[in-house]
Design goal:
Layout lengths: L15 H15 L13 E13 L2 E10 L9 E11 L10 E4 L9 E4 L4 H13 L2 E2 L2 E5 L11 E3 L7 E5 L3 E5 L2 E2 L5 H11 L10 E5 L5 E8 L5 E2 H10 L5 H21 L3 E3 L1 H21 L7 H12 L5 E3 L11 E4 L2 E4 L10 H4 L6 H15 L7 H19 L7 H22 L5 H12 L3
Antiparallel strand pairs: 1-2, 2-3, 3-5, 3-11, 4-5, 6-7, 7-12, 8-9, 9-10, 10-13, 12-13, 14-17, 15-16, 17-18
This protein binds adenosine-5'-diphosphate and ligand LMANGFYV.
Adenosine-5'-diphosphate (ADP) binds next to strand 10.
């Protein structure tokens, strides 16, 4: 086995402009291959290092901005990504997804550059920084001192298909490192902390987090207790389908868990009332997203008028309805069952939406619609499809929600249909961008929803 050797960098090599020539070519190749890269299909025209912090020799914490010539139908022209980069002088048997390649220019010339989250030394360092509440330049590591976090827990990078990257430490804690960084507090820190203050045990409470103050304030990562043995709703739903089992008891309990979280969110944040003007604003927003989605995925076009009828009906609703902070991207992959209870994770919201929008008060029906779409996803994940199975889950989930909250989402069919339609449109764009093989699943729903009586 080749001996690996850590390189050291001169302090004056760490300037963003000086370092960029070393990384630019490698990142242009490597970034678009990452699941969390949002600019798929749009060539990167420019890269800029927004900040570089040396956490140890040479483990570089980097915020990088990627610009694209083509602006997405919705969203910013550029994105900021968080990277932890390591270098070494000689090849190692490091797994290939970790390897960016060999730098040919600048201060790293001749060195192999890799994603240091794959490397135990760097991931251990992150935990140690969080434990000790350290600050290095603009990076602030903070923690809840009421919780004791042991030193030396063994790290492993989670292999799950996810939008960020997560490290599990000794099966005791999980650190989510946000890959796509936006200015402001990330709801995945803000909301679970607020829920913990409410005594809500359905959501793992953050015990430590880290943030940057340069080039702007932003949350970079959150450490939470790891739900050992937790199995996610998606895996369990597929298992049930594979063995021709019903999933209604589980769906009922998920409905109860969702309602419990919504009640705690209502207590933690303010509840507002949405009136007729708000219904029209919402409908306009949904119609606008559909227009953008058609631009990105022209296959949606034949269904456009049917889908718009759902939004038109929403625009006519004039009974005041409550709105509050919600999960924002609820689906079967966001619920984990551990010790017989469903827990809810990942309050980041839909990653493609701007943060202020994700933090806005919204109808809880939006989360319900997300989960109902997810039963439909599971039922259409493999042939033969099982639409009736999904319908039974749907009824059970809504019944569970009503049992806990005293309010049945089925009482608002027009609102539910509009949110399900909006969600299916989002899913079409998401799948086209990230997992084209999955596109038929939300497209089947689009066809059905477009055909539904208005
Ligand atoms: N507290 C936790 N305990 C156990 N597993 C977790 C926990 N939080 C997340 N996970 C696992 O990590 C995966 C990714 O987490 P998630 O927050 O959904 O990340 P992302 O936003 O990157 O998709 C989940 O599917 C789940 O399997
Ligand atoms: O990973 P995130 O939680 O950020 O969510 C994104 O990825 C999800 C897929 O991993 C995607 O969910 C869609 O596929 C799921 C099955 O893999 C299904 O259960 C969901 O209902 C469906 O929306 C999610 O939309 C996206 O935001």
């Amino acid at each position: 086995m080749a001996k690996t050797q850590t390189a050291t960098l001169r302090q004056d090599s760490l300037g963003s402009a000086v370092l960029l020539p070393s990384l630019s070519g490698l990142l242009r190749e490597w970034l678009p291959r990452q699941r969390w890269f949002a600019g798929k299909g749009r060539p990167v025209t420019d890269l800029a290092l927004l900040s570089v912090t040396e956490l140890q020799p040479v483990c570089l914490h980097v915020l990088i901005r990627a610009d694209h010539a083509e602006r997405p139908a919705a969203g910013p022209a550029h994105d900021c990504y968080q990277l932890l980069l390591g270098t070494e002088q000689s090849p190692s048997p490091r797994p290939s997804p970790a390897l960016l390649g060999r730098a040919t220019e600048g201060p790293l010339a001749g060195l192999l550059v890799y994603d240091a989250l794959h490397e135990p030394r760097s991931s251990s360092l992150l935990l140690e920084r969080l434990r000790t509440s350290d600050t290095t330049d603009a990076l602030h590591f903070e923690r809840d001192w009421r919780v004791s976090i042991p030193a030396g827990l063994t790290p492993r990078l989670l292999e799950a298909e996810q939008s960020n990257s997560s490290l599990v430490y000794g099966d005791a804690y999980i650190l989510k490192i946000f890959r796509r960084v936006r200015p402001g507090i990330n709801p995945d820190l803000e909301v679970p902390r607020a829920l913990a203050r409410q005594g809500c045990t359905r959501v793992p409470a953050p015990v430590a987090w880290f943030r940057t103050t340069s080039p702007w304030d932003a949350t970079l990562g959150v450490l939470q207790p790891f739900l050992r043995g937790g199995a996610d709703g998606w895996t369990q739903a597929l298992e049930a389908l594979a063995s021709a089992r019903e999933f209604t008891a589980e769906a009922f309990e998920m409905g109860r868990a969702t309602a419990e979280v919504h009640l705690a969110l209502a207590a933690a944040f303010s509840v507002v009332s949405q009136d007729a003007t708000e219904s029209r604003r919402l409908a306009t927003g949904m119609a606008g997203r559909l227009r953008d989605a058609i631009h990105a995925v022209p296959d949606l076009l034949p269904y456009a008028s049917g889908l718009r009828s759902a939004f038109a009906e929403l625009a006519t609703l004039d009974t005041p309805r409550p709105a509050q902070r919600i999960h924002g991207d609820l689906h079967l992959g966001q619920v984990l069952r551990a010790e017989q209870e469903w827990h809810v994770i990942d309050f980041e919201g839909e990653p493609a939406r701007p943060l202020p929008e994700r933090r806005r008060a919204q109808s809880p029906v939006r989360d319900v619609a997300g989960m109902l779409r997810s039963f439909d996803y599971a039922a259409h994940a493999r042939r033969p499809w099982h639409p009736q199975w999904a319908l039974r889950c749907r009824e059970a989930y809504c019944a569970g929600y009503a049992a806990e909250s005293g309010w049945d989402p089925r009482a608002e069919p027009a609102l539910l249909r509009a949110y399900e339609t909006d969600r299916a449109v989002y899913e079409v764009v998401y799948e086209a961008r990230h997992r084209p093989d999955w596109l038929p699943v939300p497209m089947a729903a689009v066809a059905r929803l477009a055909d539904a009586p208005g």
